[in-house]
Design goal:
Shape: elongated
Largest sheet: 9 strands, mixed
Number of strands: 14
Distance between the termini: 82 Å
Helix content: 25-40%
Radius of gyration: 25 Å
Order of helices and strands: EHEHEHEHEHHHHEHHEEEHEHEEEE
Amino acid sequence: MQSTEPHTPPAPPAPPAPQVKCVVWDLDDTLWDGTLLEGDDLGVPEANRQLVRTLDEHGILQSVASRNEPDAVAERLRAFGLDEYFLYPQVGWSAKSASLRTVAQELNISPESVLFVDDSEFERAEVAGALPGVRCMTRQELHALVAAGAVLPAQVTDDARRRRAMYRAESRRRTHEVAFDGPAAEFLESLDMTLRVREASTADLARAAELTQRTHQLNTTGITFGQEELASLIRDPGHRVLVAELDDRFGTYGTIGLAVVATGTTGPAGAGPSAVAPRWTIRLLLMSCRVMGRNIGTSLIAAVARLAAAHGAGTVAHFRPTDRNRQMLVTYRFAGFTVESRTDDLVVLSLPEAGGPAVPGYVRLVVEDTPAAPRGTSQEFIA
């Protein structure tokens, strides 16, 4: 007999938890065993030490939220050899939720990407009530979650491994900027920036794909590429995939730019004799928002144009408008590109034969060129 019970559709699957970007530790009976203010003989369990190192090696930032005396905490963390791992530690007598909010603001991340670890049920409840997006747990629950594969990223890029160092460098950079008294150009000169542009390798694929998927404002076409697509383009003799790395006197910004360039194109039909001249077409050019205001986009464009010229080619660029990227069209025009054609969803721009844009005087541009033939050799030129 056929059932007459009403059919209940299955519940939709729960959305995946946000990626963990930061773990914030309480100290007493959480990071270490014992209570500092009670004069206990404190000790950090070896499992906690190893977990702190593991999180750091996987690019997960860490901080502290503790009700304690700041100087005493700083001294104990130094004695344990752990002080270097914690960014913007919040030690004092404020509510833990206020400490978590400050850490998230300083790191420029959302509370949903933060895990809070505390032995006190009261403190966990206070944070959960004020910041419901923060996931709160005991240290035992954190260890179990890591062991279950729910915290560490599946892939670790070079940028992830040095993420803590980059945040520390950015903190020093901001302090310098606030204290600097002079014109903007002199401030940029004081940074002593070096931009290195080179062909992407397989080791760059994860970070390059991440840039295409997460960078929207400083992105010329809005195209996204997965790792397999980028790997295919690296192998394609008709393409160059270029990554840009920026350093300054305070440290590295990491990989902050990407250009995907088609090298097998010629001029537009009906354009006369120059139509057969080779041209490199920038299909995608993007910059991390971390370097906004540094004029690094112009320098990356200059690097592509000079590589093209070194191979006897002109430079063309595609721009696809989105609701956020108009600034990149302005960047192309400022770099000297003129509009060659325009449709509803694509603007084709080209550089005059006279050459590419000038590199700002406060940027040292280093370009590594790996010619298509023979593949695998390299030469470096400095602008």
